[in-house]
Each structure stands twice: as C-alpha cells, then as structure tokens.
Write a structure and sequence with these properties.
This protein has about 90 residues and is mostly helical. It has one domain. It has 3 helices and no strands. The longest helix has about 35 residues.
Length: about 90
C-alpha cells in the first residue's frame, strides 16, 4: 500500500511541476509584452478616450487675475487649496 501511495504522490508532484513550469513561461511572455516602451502621446490619447467614454468633458480655461488690489493674496490663497483644479 505504501508503494501505491508513493507512486500517486510522485505522479502528482510531476504533474504540478509541469504545470508550474508552464505558468512561469506564460508569466515571462506577459512580462515581455508589458516591458515594451509605450510613448507618452499614446498613453495620453488612451486616457483621453477613456475619460470621454466615461463622460468627462474637457474644458480649456484661460488663466486670469482679478483687478482688485489684493490679487496677489487671492492667487496665493488659491494655490494652497488642496481641491483638484477642475473643481475650483
């Protein structure tokens, strides 16, 4: 009986070893695919497409200063706000 159990365990170990080796090969191939350098322009285009798909409408805003005498303190104060720029 112990010879049968040993044979089964040996077969199971061999099968698992083959499976682990095949999975390691797949991981290496995935790493090689991900290691390719993607240009920044492509990443920006993909992120813009995803944002548009999710419903974000991009707006271009021109910077401006108020005409009051305290425009420096106003600008300084707005720079210390930790809210995202598109919510200000």
């Amino acid at each position: 009986m112990t010879d049968d159990v040993n044979a089964e365990l040996l077969a199971a170990v061999k099968a698992l070893t083959e499976r682990v080796e095949s999975l390691e090969g797949e991981i290496k191939s995935i790493k090689l695919l991900n290691a390719q350098n993607v240009p920044e322009d492509v990443i920006i285009a993909i992120s813009a497409a995803v944002a548009a798909y999710l419903g974000h409408k991009a707006k271009r805003r021109a910077g401006h200063f108020t005409r009051s005498a305290a425009w420096q303190s106003t600008t300084r104060r707005s720079q210390h706000v930790h809210a995202p720029l598109y919510l200000r």
